[in-house]
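Trying the structure run again after the queue cleared.
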Amino acid sequence: MIVIYRISNNSNKKPKLENATKEACFVNFCNYVLTEQDFLIVLADNVDTTLGSFLDSNLPKNCRLFQVSTGSNGASFKLQIELACKLPSNETVFLHEDDYLYREGRPNTDGAKFCNLLVMEGLAKADYISLYDHPDKYLPPSSNGNPLITESGVENTGVFLTSSSHWKYTNSTTCTFAAKVGTVLQDRDVWLKWANGPNDFQAFLELRSKGRFLATPIPGYATHADLGSLSPLFDWSSIRSSSSANTA
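Done. Tokens:
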């Protein structure tokens, strides 16, 4: 798997988990998702000296860091998409933002990590996957939930089982997702069409109308750091922040 991880000092102003700093999220991802067989591309988008020094000290062995200055969230996402489309078409690519936490599963060794295995299991049944179970899928539109959810808080979907988790097909997720490179390349025009913002919700709706399937595990194994958007049924504040990533 190739990961394209974009990180910046900028973020929205919504209240976030105290244990989900940019540094903590990066270390958490390296420790719970990234294996020694994967390759990590880090897009350090206009980072300051402090965050830059942290990255220099915590980059995994199989990693390449690019210092960039795109000017906006949408522009950095466009760069992610363009980079992904240049990779081998049969490779798995994971496009990742800098404000997510993962919970540990077993196994969790340098060579095999539960969340990594989960990504591969999900992609055997779906075109796109995320390990984040977005809480808006359980809120009706009248409560600022997902507009495609019923007023009783139900998403009409399909459920499937892999070796490690139950999953559901869902209508959308954020800009943190995994897919085959060939899939992203075929869908490049859709992603670039909705990249300003970016408007991930409309992008996934258009892809669904073209026959693409997006799946997430239930319950989720990742969460967005915004306090109002935490993946349900787990205490994400209980995740301890490690001081450094395993860079061996």
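Residues 2-224 form a domain with the Spore Coat Polysaccharide Biosynthesis Protein SpsA; Chain A fold (CATH 3.90.550). Worth checking whether this holds up in the mutant runs.
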